[in-house]
Amino acid sequence: MRVDLFDFDLPDERIALRPAEPRDSARLLVVDPNVESHLSDYRVGDLTSFLRAGDALVFNDTKVIPAQLEGIRHRDGAGGQQVSATLHMRIGPNRWKAFAKPGKRIKQGDRISFGHSGESCFLGSLDATVEEKGEAGEVTLLFDLSGPALDEAIAAVGHIPLPPYIAAKRPEDERDRADYQTIYAREEGAVAAPTAGLHFTPNLFEALDRAGIERHFVTLHVGAGTFLPVKADDTADHRMHLESGTVSAATAARLNAVKADGGRIVCVGTTSLRLIESAAEESGEIRAWSGATGIFITPGYRFKAVDMLMTNFHLPRSTLFMLVSAFSGLDTMRAAYDHAIQTGYRFYSYGDASLLFRKD
């Protein structure tokens, strides 16, 4: 499909720079393409009104790490140059794939010392070698530290990698370390938050429990590739970046039981949806799964397991806007986004949410 089919104009003031307070007071646009009046305005706290006992919410329990690193590049003993690297996928105890800037000036074999901006880990800096250089500024970094020692050093010198549409308007601050994290985050490894989950609070979890709604967790470590624009003119020419994830055998079995009993699988966020669909057979049965997924969902995709999706409002010409258009229909989602813009919904990571029914 042509990528420009997924374009729209968003006024700059619609980009949220902070989350709603409390989180579950954010607006919720309910979109059901299967009924005539398919758009309705609510709050996230009203979520239980659209679910029923026996349904299962699926959350991504990945935890954002301070994956934005600033450092000095060294080559052949020459003077250093300031560089930055955003880690996006761990491939070993001491290896990460990262997006580096300025990418064109970085070469294989370069040494980079991170942590020279006044903040440092317990060794004074965190050093790495550029082991491999790929396309579009992607590099493989081989760190001098490994395992838990590397994790501790990254936590000491790194910064929360705010999405570029927020970082362009204000610097990251201490508040973001809490705001840009779900309350159920557990498995460290993401460089971007599963933002639909940012709306959940202990009070909302209690309301879901009283309503008989099940909660289940999967893990997909969101990579920085989620912020990359689709530069191709046709979706067939776009390559998704891989992201690592896991669906446990126990979770798969429970979700299959929910479906068998007539319940619905409701994914909180496109990350959990992509993982569940990666783990699902053509029959709709969900299997235990672990690995890297690069699933790219566009209109025409046949959903195998997921019935509903809660998600934020996404960027134009993005793979996520393509995904929601596949789920509820392109015309429906264009109308939904027009409505959201006209009625003052807040967009992107810290913005409001939508609850989508799958188009029959």
From TrEMBL:
It holds the Pfam family Queuosine_synth. GO terms for biological process: tRNA queuosine(34) biosynthetic process. One of its GO terms (cellular component) is cytoplasm. It catalyses: 7-aminomethyl-7-carbaguanosine(34) in tRNA + S-adenosyl-L-methionine = epoxyqueuosine(34) in tRNA + adenine + L-methionine + 2 H(+). Keywords: Cytoplasm, Glycosyltransferase, Isomerase, Queuosine biosynthesis, S-adenosyl-L-methionine, Transferase. Pathway: tRNA modification; tRNA-queuosine biosynthesis. The keyword Amino-acid biosynthesis does not apply. Its EC number is 2.4.99.17. Gene3D superfamilies: QueA-like. It is found in: Cytoplasm. One of its GO terms (molecular function) is S-adenosylmethionine:tRNA ribosyltransferase-isomerase activity. Belongs to the QueA family. Monomer. Transfers and isomerizes the ribose moiety from AdoMet to the 7-aminomethyl group of 7-deazaguanine (preQ1-tRNA) to give epoxyqueuosine (oQ-tRNA). This is S-adenosylmethionine:tRNA ribosyltransferase-isomerase. It comes from Rhizobium leguminosarum. The gene is queA.
